[in-house]
Design brief:
By secondary structure, the protein is an alpha/beta fold. The protein is built from 29 helices and 19 strands. Helix content is 48%, strand content 12%. It is globular and about 85 Å long. The chain binds (2S,3S)-3-hydroxy-2-methylbutanoyl-COA (T1G).
């Protein structure tokens, strides 16, 4: 079997070009060279009347090879290949299966007709990587599908099903069969004249200034920090003119986006979400999970149950009372109803999911399930008692997991005679929507049990990140630290609303005080009380203001008042807040001072990065990218900044050390330079280097 990425097959008067570059036929250099060589080979035959272009493996070209970005561009580039296809004398029909994405769809649009298998999908997701379709997509898509459809495809990055793509005009036909057989049949139809072909570039784009103007205003308002969405609209607007001028405009815009820090961050996020699956236990044999038990029908337990039911698993839900059980089942039902409303599943699938749910107050009914997830109130004694019981109930080989957000998995596992079967599976609320799952590995957790956690995550369509045991694991440990920085900013003079606005300007969907109100201030209050006994005396207390709010019964949205007042959909100022802040400052003997937006962001992010560096240093996270993925998937970190440690590399370890040492003059206990950062500042290492194992 040659390792040629592109093969030509001549079948009478038609030729077939087969691209074979697993895993996703990315159009790397060898594929591009191979396509050009194939066309030359076909020209040389001289008798070919039509060409069918298709791919081997699981999908048509899923885009340009992203791993080539940032490296010197090697010719032929993809724009050139698409032009060569378009200008080829003999008609070429592209046959799409799997997902034709980005440069893949652009390659197909460079061909003279497009046929898709019924299950195929097409898309132009480049904007999700901070770039834009740079091989003619912004010029050919409007010519085939019109400006509104092209804007939809290019700005949403969504994967469009074959039928809708046909209705849009992006593809010309849907045919059944294997990709090769369809390529042969379609090419013969071209010869027979029953499948029309045309050069996309010769088509005209009907102007639609209104759509362009509306969309431009929308992206500027919705994504003020992002470069590529705006560039996408400007390129589509240029598609009403001459093709070559439009392609040149697109190329310049593409190169500008590709050079942007945003694109580097978004590409880091793309590969990061895949890199976190690379764990020491990946070769271990995961145990089969055909059934799940969930203990606790509260927000988390019902969310986890919903996620499992939506993934096709049977679930046994356990609660202590019938009332609590009924509440859990009602929440699950509402979650599933919401999924139907959001178009995530059909009514029949909802009913089938509910039919897979068993609700019981008897823990004994968990005796045959493959995996149990305990999701009860965050109390160590209650959790230990449950695991003690599970040890006596569950079958041999069952995996016992806790959804604790902070507590010591080793201590919980010690309650059983099978600590090797115990791990943490830390879901994020709402658990049937949030994609992140922290898989917390105890000191005795068996490799196959860790592998089972990761395979469950895949089944639930979650992104799993491996975490070691410490208070709060990766995410909440770091959160606990930088929220103190936010509280110190307020104690020292900033206003909670000012802090939130500064961080929303940085890119967070919501500032820490609004997030606190959303999650419930009582959670933080209980954590502070839980940790009070172990708080070092030299630590400056950060909870005075939040404590007062909770002690007043103001725990945020759920009580209509917290840092802010919530009146229906309105968020209003809390008229009592300033007095509480002034009192806390007076008690602490603080003279407030002004903080700039830049200083607020700097302190908050430096605090986050410091603790993140310690989490890597302590081996709680395998790599810096694991921290980044946790924050991108679970803590609303702005994706176009790539995560705390990707962002840290844009600042540099030396500058971070300088900042921390400056802040330490105010508070040497809170602001300490992590050894890892000091070492990186000394030897010039970056977190990107650490991700590569350097
Ligand atoms: N380039 C390089 N590697 C890629 C790749 C790509 N385009 N797409 C996937 N991979 C790798 C991925 O890292 C993983 O590797 C393996 O393939 C399987 O992927 C000019 C410039 C296709 C829907 O944005 O959305 O074209 O981890 O685990 O869940 O306009 O991959 O096994 O080592 O994700 O089944 C535009 C990106 C590029 C599509 C399959 N295209 N890919 O999902 O598998 S920019 C995209 C995906 C562009 C032009 C511009 C998904 C998928 P590893 P996977 P999956």
């Amino acid at each position: 079997m040659s390792d040629k990425k592109v093969r030509v097959e001549i079948v009478e008067e038609v030729a077939l070009i087969c691209i074979d570059n697993p895993p996703v036929n990315a159009s790397g250099l060898a594929v591009r060279q191979g396509i050009v060589a194939a066309l030359e080979e076909i020209s040389a035959v001289g008798s070919i009347r039509a060409v069918g272009l298709y791919c081997a493996g699981r999908t048509f070209i899923a885009g340009a090879d992203i791993t080539e970005f940032g490296k010197p561009l090697q010719e032929p580039g993809l724009p050139g290949v698409c032009d060569t296809l378009e200008n080829f004398d003999t008609p070429i029909v592209a046959v799409i299966h799997g997902t034709a994405l980005g440069g893949g769809l652009e390659t197909a649009m460079g061909c003279h007709a497009r046929v898709a298998l019924p299950s195929a999908k097409v898309g132009l997701p480049e904007v999700l990587l901070g770039i834009l379709p740079g091989a003619g997509g912004t010029q050919r898509a409007p010519r085939l599908a019109g400006i509104p459809n092209a804007l939809d495809l290019i700005l949403s990055g969504r994967h469009v099903a074959a039928q809708e793509a046909l209705e849009m005009g992006v593809i010309d036909r849907i045919m059944e069969g294997t990709p090769r057989d369809v390529a042969l049949a379609a090419a013969r139809e071209v010869v027979a004249g029953t499948l029309a072909t045309r050069r996309t570039g010769t088509l005209q784009t009907a102007p639609d200034d209104a759509a362009i103007a509306t969309t431009l205003a929308h992206v500027q308002q919705k994504h003020p920090q992002l470069i590529s969405p705006q560039k996408c609209v400007e390129c589509v607007a240029a598609s009403t003119g001459d093709l070559q001028e439009g392609l040149a405009f697109e190329r310049a815009a593409f190169m500008e986006c590709l050079a942007s820090p945003q694109s580097k961050a978004l590409i880091h996020a793309f590969f990061g979400e895949r890199a976190v699956a690379n764990i020491p236990e990946k070769t271990a044999q995961a145990r089969d999970i055909g059934s799940l038990g969930v203990i606790g029908g509260g927000t988390m337990g019902s969310g986890i149950s919903t996620s499992a039911l939506m993934a096709g698993l049977p679930v046994t839900l356990i609660e202590v009372t019938q009332e609590a059980l009924a509440r859990g089942v009602a929440t699950i039902t509402a979650n599933l109803e919401g999924a139907v409303k959001r178009g995530k599943m059909g009514a029949a699938a909802r009913d089938a999911a509910l039919a897979r749910l068993t609700a019981s107050t008897e823990m004994q009914s968990l005796s045959e399930v493959d995996l149990v997830i305990e999701a009860v109130f965050e109390n160590m004694e209650i959790k230990k008692e449950i695991f003690g019981k599970l040890d006596g109930i569950c079958k041999e080989g069952a995996v016992l997991a806790s959804n604790t957000s902070y507590l010591d998995i080793n201590e919980i596992a010690a309650m059983t005679g099978r600590p090797q079967d115990v791990l943490g599976l830390h879901f994020f609320s709402p658990a049937h929507i949030m994609k992140l799952l922290e898989v917390v590995v105890g000191e005795n957790t068996a490799p196959e049990v860790v592998a089972t956690g990761f395979s469950l995550a895949k089944k639930l369509r979650k992104v799993a990140v491996r975490a070691g045991v410490c208070d709060g694991f990766i995410g909440n440990r770091i959160l606990g630290h930088y929220l103190k920085a936010a509280s110190y900013l307020v104690l020292d003079g900033a206003h909670p609303d000012q802090v939130d606005r500064a961080l929303e300007g940085f890119g967070f969907a919501m500032g820490p005080h609004r997030v606190g109100d959303l999650a419930g201030l009582d959670i933080g209050y209980m954590t502070r009380k839980r940790l009070a006994a172990t708080r070092p005396p030299e630590e400056r207390y950060s909870g005075a203001i939040a404590d007062q709010l909770s002690e007043n019964g103001w725990n945020g949205r759920k009580s209509g008042k917290g840092y802010f007042v919530y009146d229906g959909r309105e968020t209003l100022e809390n008229p009592d807040l300033n007095a509480i802040i002034a009192e806390a400052r007076a008690k602490a003997g603080i003279t407030p001072r002004d903080f700039s937006v830049a200083e607020i962001v700097e302190r908050y992010m430096t605090a986050m990065i410091s603790e993140a560096a310690r989490v890597v240093e302590d081996g709680i996270a395998l790599r810096p990218v694991d921290v980044d993925v946790v924050f991108l998937m679970g803590y609303g970190f702005p994706r176009f900044r790539g995560g705390p440690l990707h962002y840290a590399d844009t600042i540099g370890a030396a500058e971070l050390v300088r900042r921390i040492e400056a802040y330490a003059e105010e508070d040497a206990h809170y602001w300490q330079v992590p050894d890892l950062l000091r070492k990186m500042a000394a030897d010039g290492t970056t977190f990107a280097d650490l991700n590569k194992g350097k």
